[in-house]
């Protein structure tokens, strides 16, 4: 029955089974996978940031996502919206620099759009909520795609997510790589002017890790036996 509902519910390809297949456990597993990816790639993120920033992006992101996984392991909320809201608050309180408020806003706004009551949400609802979270990041930072920021990965990912989680992953990775030839127009990197050209934006790189972890979590869920 669960598989039938997934087929009838119009969930995008690559979504977990079930038209309302995203629950709190899914979000916890996504954020745990994201934390593992950040931990694994922290040195690379720091190297990217050393070229055009403060050389602390990897360390800051590692500290923040370790705090997120620790908090969620202690007392995970029961709904996906509540998990995201808690994760966002944790990032704001533990990540230094601009990354904490920006990533915290992304998760908190996404969670706020989902609400704290629904135990499961559809992939379409999640895609709409994430788009709102990405828009909130743009409003907070005063940035747009092309400014050489995390939005260069997040905006195309949010636009592709209604198609599938893997389409979002591909869009995020491509968007992050596309920051290399850009001249930074926002953030500390913008102070370098033309010297920012030729370097990948570290925020876009970490955003691509987050979206990649989401796609991998969705693929694992889709391949799991139905409950």
TrEMBL record:
DhaL domain residues: 25-216
Alphabetical UniProt keywords: Kinase, Transferase
Pfam families xref list: Dak2
GO CC field: cytosol
One of the record's GO molecular function terms: glycerone kinase activity
GO terms (BP aspect): glycerol catabolic process
PROSITE patterns: DHAL
Name recorded for this polypeptide: Dihydroxyacetone kinase, C-terminal domain
Organism, scientific name: Streptomyces aidingensis
